[in-house]
């Protein structure tokens, strides 16, 4: 936020929030995992974990050593070695068939990949980001937002300070994710413009502080609190 006696500017983060980076990364990694597993099942490449530790008898060990070193074979009957117990561990293999498990994993992986790709594009474009500028020096209010690529990529609105009637705060209580706290700029003629970013939750204390500071700066009434 840029403040001085005549100009105030409030930055709007938009889609470049830390939570969006986190969830876009998690969804992308999960989708790639699903696609990789489904692709392996299509190639009939199974993920098997078979551990087999087998014991060899004394005779075969000595004969193998003799053949390898090209020396006179040793009479294995004259040598006694302690018997080694045979340990065999069999872990059941995990086999994923392509139909229907592998096909479903490819389907869900594709959906997750497209969702994460769309999410990363929103972050790159910073949709909803911008700023609110209140300029007493030149007597205008500027509302700037980044939109989707195209004709509405830049949303740049100008209003005069003398048309501002009040600042209104709207509080909609709900669950943890359903609570909505929005600051509106109310103009003469009942026109209202939201000042807070969409999907950018603010605490009740932050809403009250920002709304009261803005009302005092513009010298207008504060509604809703």
From TrEMBL:
TM stretches of this protein: 21-43, 102-127
Topology within the bilayer: Multi-pass membrane protein
Domain of life per record: Eukaryota
Keywords associated with the record: Chloroplast, Membrane, Photosynthesis, Plastid, Thylakoid, Transmembrane, Transmembrane helix
Record localization: Plastid thylakoid membrane; Plastid, Chloroplast thylakoid membrane
InterPro entries for the chain: PSI_Ycf4_assembly
GO cellular component terms attached to this protein's record: chloroplast thylakoid membrane; photosystem I
GO biological process per UniProt: photosynthesis
PANTHER family per record: PHOTOSYSTEM I ASSEMBLY PROTEIN YCF4, PTHR33288
Homology family: Belongs to the Ycf4 family.
Biological role: Seems to be required for the assembly of the photosystem I complex.
Name assigned to this protein: Photosystem I assembly protein Ycf4
């Amino acid at each position: 936020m840029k403040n001085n006696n005549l100009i105030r500017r409030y930055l709007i983060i938009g889609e470049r929030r830390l939570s969006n980076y986190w969830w876009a990364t998690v969804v992308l990694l999960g989708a790639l995992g699903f696609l990789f597993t489904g692709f392996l099942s299509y190639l009939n490449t199974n993920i098997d974990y078979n551990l087999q530790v087998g014991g060899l008898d004394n005779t075969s060990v000595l004969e193998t050593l003799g053949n390898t070193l090209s020396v006179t074979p040793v009479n294995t009957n004259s040598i006694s070695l302690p018997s080694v117990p045979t340990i065999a561990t069999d872990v059941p293999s995990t086999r994923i068939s392509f139909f229907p498990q592998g096909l479903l994993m490819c389907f869900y992986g594709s959906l997750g990949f497209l969702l994460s790709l769309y999410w990363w594009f929103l972050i790159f474009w910073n949709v909803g980001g911008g700023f609110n500028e209140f300029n007493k020096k030149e007597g205008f209010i500027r509302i700037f937002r980044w939109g989707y690529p195209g004709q509405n990529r830049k949303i740049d609105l100008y209003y005069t300070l003398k048309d501002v009637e009040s600042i209104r705060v709207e509080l909609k209580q709900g669950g943890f994710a359903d609570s909505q706290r929005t600051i509106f700029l109310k103009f003469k003629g009942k026109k209202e413009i939201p000042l807070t970013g969409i999907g950018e939750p603010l605490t009740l204390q932050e809403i009250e502080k920002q709304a009261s500071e803005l009302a005092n700066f513009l010298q207008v009434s504060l509604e809703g609190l």
